[in-house]
Design brief:
By secondary structure, this protein is mostly beta strands. It is 12% helix and 49% strand.
């Protein structure tokens, strides 16, 4: 009997020892340690890397729910990589860290691209050396470059500083400042122009003798700050003009209708506007002399350089006319007349007819020192004429 009891107590001791050993190896899931002790995962729009540091007594794994946000694990450190981002709105991802049976979610935030400047898309100055400063706000690196060595551009203390050297070429020049941030780029056009040298001076006033076929001719004219002067058959004429911005660009020449331009023999000559499509002078002279007097012609000096160095100052001749109280479409003024009057009063009764009719007039700048034009047509023919 004693022997049997000893065996029973021995087995009980063995089972008791085995149970204690199993308890020492088992740790309930609620006792795992997993905590985030540092998270640097708020990013700007540029491609960047941050870290999430955790405290854990188990192996750590991590996964991201967005493709643009990738993760890798080194011990208790989760490396977070975000791709470059060029949108304005910010975006978010979620990194899930796993350790044993515990998980923790860490939000990742990437700000949208911010670039704002008060710099205009075009800067125009005279020939002198100048410096321009414009405030810039950006949350990413901005790369600057220029098209020419007479332009320098830097960002200094939150300002875009553009420096221009003196223009000693004697002619207008144009260059660019280029800026890039992320995958976005832009440019600022820089023009150095002198009003007296590049705008005023000698032009060719081209016009067609026919409204329906190309029969081009031109008159040498001189554009002054307050007039367009020319000579026909030994007679000097002068068309009064006004620059809307004076000597500052953009240059727009305003020419009013029904202006006295000079005396030809015993005829008093006036500049008058018409519309080819309406032909008011011949078809509706009563309206022509009543309503056209309120019209104004605008010549926008849009310059374009050609291989031969000539600069074209063209643009549509535009205005507004009313016919029976109804305004005609702007841009319909496409005909200029030099009207002869029997007396110095612009009236239908005094009108003798047109000394010169100019369809689709346009101006082309004559480069300094160039000879008279030998071309048979203007270098830039207006689209309006081609359509007709």
């Amino acid at each position: 009997m004693k022997k049997i009891l000893s065996i029973i107590f021995l087995l009980a001791a063995v089972f008791s020892f085995t149970a204690c050993s199993s308890d020492d190896d088992y740790v309930p899931s609620q006792n795992y340690v997993l905590e985030v002790i540092q998270a640097d995962v708020t990013f700007g729009p540029e491609a960047s890397t941050g870290q999430i540091v955790v405290n854990s007594d188990q192996a750590v794994a991590a996964v991201s729910n967005e493709e643009w946000c990738s993760v890798s694990v080194q011990g208790n450190v989760v490396n977070v990589n975000v791709a470059s981002y060029d949108k304005i709105a910010s975006r978010n991802a979620l990194v899930t860290i796993v350790s044993g049976t515990k998980t923790v979610d860490v939000p990742v935030h990437q700000n949208g691209a911010v670039f704002a400047t008060k710099a205009p898309s075009e800067i125009t100055s005279d020939y002198s050396a100048q410096q321009f400063e414009y405030q810039v706000k950006s949350n990413m690196t901005v790369d600057l470059s220029t098209s020419d060595d007479w332009i320098a551009a830097k960002i200094i203390d939150g300002n875009l500083v553009i420096t221009l050297s003196e223009n000693t070429t004697g002619a207008k020049r144009t260059g660019y400042v280029y800026y890039n941030y992320g995958v976005t780029s832009g440019e600022i056009q820089i023009t150095q122009i002198d009003f007296n040298v590049d705008v005023l001076g000698e032009y060719e006033l081209w016009y067609s003798k026919s409204a329906t076929s190309a029969q081009w001719s031109y008159i040498p004219v001189t554009l002054k700050s307050n007039s367009i002067d020319f000579n026909i058959a030994g007679t000097d004429f002068s068309i009064p003009v006004r620059f809307t911005n004076g000597t500052k660009p953009p240059y727009e020449v305003v020419i009013a209708d029904e202006q006295y331009v000079g005396l030809y023999s015993s005829y008093y000559c006036y500049l008058a506007f018409d519309c080819y499509g309406y032909n008011l002078l011949n078809r509706y002279p009563q309206y022509f002399f009543v309503y056209c007097g309120t019209s104004t012609s605008y010549l926008t000096l849009e310059d374009e350089e050609y291989d031969d160095g000539t600069v074209v100052f063209g643009g549509l001749v535009e205005g507004m006319i009313e016919l029976d109280g109804e305004p005609l479409d702007e841009g319909d003024i496409d005909t200029w007349y030099l009207l002869a009057m029997s007396a110095q009063e612009y009236t239908q009764n005094n009108a003798l007819g047109a000394l010169l009719t100019m369809y689709y007039p346009q101006f082309e700048k004559v480069s300094t020192g160039s000879a008279a034009s030998r071309r048979s047509a203007p270098m830039r023919i207006r689209n309006k004429f081609i359509k007709k």
